[in-house]
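Per-record layout

source: Geodermatophilus obscurus
name: FAD linked oxidase domain protein
length: 468
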Amino acid sequence: MTADLTARLRDVVGPAGVVEDPAGFLTDWRGAYSGTAAAVVRPGSTEEVAAVVALCRDLGVAVVPQGGNTGLCGGAVPDASGRQVVLSLTRMRRIRDLDVANSTITVEAGVVLQTVQEAAAAAGRLFPLSLGAEGSCTIGGNLATNAGGTGVLRYGTMRDLTLGLEVVLPDGRVWHGLRGLRKDNTGYDLKQLFVGAEGTLGVITAAVLELFPAVRSTATAWVALPDPQAAVDLVGVVRGSAGDRLTAFELMSRQSVDFVLRHGAGVRDPIADVHPWYALVELSDTLPDAGLEAVVEAALGESVERGVVTDAVVASGSAQVAALWALREGISEAQNSEGPSLKHDVTVPISAIPAFVAATDRALAGALPGVRVVAYGHVGDGNLHYNLSGPQPRDDGAFRARAGELSRIVHDSAAAFDGSISAEHGLGQAKRDVIADYKSPLELELMRGVKQLLDPAGLMNPGKVLPG
Ligand code: FAD
Ligand code: MLT
Ligand code: ZN
């Protein structure tokens, strides 16, 4: 079966499109999920993707779409059966069009996010999606997970940045929806079905994305805070004075920063004293001399007087800005160096963050004394990565054995504060079963109905998103 399948796939995509050494496509970035595959193919065009999908449908073989394989919940990793085909979009990396007057860029699914940012910048525009994996994640993966990152509070998620899509449906037909329109009220907004579907409804092959005016000045501050309530207060103060010029507000616990200081290369603490929490605050403007430093300094000065801010550093120069961002963006990788981690990408109303953190910290300390809470994230959106590492001395086996129970505590707590168990990473295989406890039967029925309509044979990324 495998030899025959590989031969037929080779007929479709040519020898260059069939991967000889599939190892890098079968395990995720964290090493948390692994599988095997009947074949790994890298089609070079929409027509080839459609032909691969149609062939797999005819043979009853499941397809797992994959981009940069940086996803954090196992969505791009095949199962252990060895019967699935991994369809990597990484050869589809053409920028098809950049329309400055329409402020849009049309790109293929395998284009790396950073490449899109750079192409927009070269045209005097901004593509605002920004996240730690931007050097390797792809636009297709960003769309399929509805990625968020650090600019959401100003520019929205990938969903908000998408005007049109081209999609290969599970039966091999191509939906040509590459429109660059801001307004189009002609019935259901079909593109939004595929954004955030994590490859379970079809393979995205290209997209029209919205561009924004280029940023010409920024002010970046590293702020020490006594507690999460201070962070919530500070978001309000800075938003009040800077309005839409507030483009990032990231919160980090001392534990998170400690991990980066321990494992990151060339990083150092911007503030000598140790504080329990920090925020990275960034203002941006399209004007070259917008006086942003004065705006951020005034907001911080007022907050120091009110006891909301304990200490702060406003970056001077691009090297210091990069150093502050390296501390923030280095947390994921640094936590990997501390052994197995449990990722909880929760979101609650911003106002509920302090109570959520207090209640969840308390519940976890009772369940597993010494568990290390690595809480950080996009607090301006109400999105905390409330991740866990095991107690020390390390006992990975014992920590893994408690994983289900510990995650249940965090997720129940998010639900108790009217939150969600995934803000931006998705469900993948990591949360596909537990989501059944947090969505209503009607929501699950509607989701299954959509899946049944588009993929009645269940061959598009099975075992992901929908509960078994
Ligand atoms: P993959 O991992 O390859 O795939 C992810 C999912 O999308 C899978 O279900 C896959 O089947 C599906 N898929 C991929 N391509 C297609 C396609 N063309 N058509 C249909 N389905 C497809 N995420 C955030 O949202 N915000 C963050 O701040 C953030 N920070 C991160 C930091 C680090 C260090 C890392 C490692 C990851 C981070 N992520 C973050 C998670 C991840 O990078 C994003 O989810 C990213 O959007 C995934 O893109 P990818 O190309 O790697 O997708
Ligand atoms: C981030 O914002 O750094 C990632 O989305 C969080 C994570 O890796 O858990
Ligand atoms: Zn994040």
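summary: The first strand starts at residue 39 and ends at 41. The domain at 95-213 is CATH 3.30.465.10 (Uridine Diphospho-n-acetylenolpyruvylglucosamine Reductase; domain 3).
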